[in-house]
Amino acid sequence: MSLSADGFNGSQLFELLGAGLADETLKKKAIAGVKAVIVITLKNKEGKEVSWLLDLKDAGTVKKFEGAAPKGDVQLLLKDADFVKLAEGKANGQKLFMNGKLKVKGNMMKATAIEGVFKTLDPRPKL
Predict the structure, then answer these.
(1) Nearest Cα to 36, choosing from 111, 92, 120?
(2) For 95-104, what is the mean pLDDT?
(3) 72-88 pLDDT per residue, tens
(4) Could you tell me how many helices (H) and strands (E) the chain has, helices first?
(5) Rounded Cα–Cα distance for residues 60 and 20 (Å)
(6) CA-based angle 57:62:66, to the nearest 5?
(7) SS3 (DSSP) at 102
(8) Please, what are the domains in the chain?
(9) Would you say 107 and 114 are in contact if contact means Cβ atoms under 8 Å apart?
(10) 65, 53 contact by CB (below 8 A)
């Protein structure tokens, strides 16, 4: 199942997460660091919403959902462009939250772990 979604730049980052989770060592590290199911719902410029479920509690998988968002330990809601900045380390999750650009439902402490997940699972070479 493809993790990409037309009109969402952030979908490429979920493809990278999926590739990172294919490595058993990285998967175990991510699960140990988060221990939660995180649902990330992105809204694009056209107002369309797509959700991705990151199971970093048991399975170490990423799944895409269109329509109603699935349930998780924590749900993050933000614009596609803000998500890309967050995942690439160009934006701070705390600042996005304080400015109302990131909405969090559920376990707030688990939400803070998402930035570390992207750093851990990003398969791109570090320069």
Answers:
(1) 111
(2) 94
(3) 999 999 999 999 998 88
(4) 6, 5
(5) 10
(6) 120
(7) strand
(8) 11-119 (3.30.1050.10)
(9) no
(10) yes
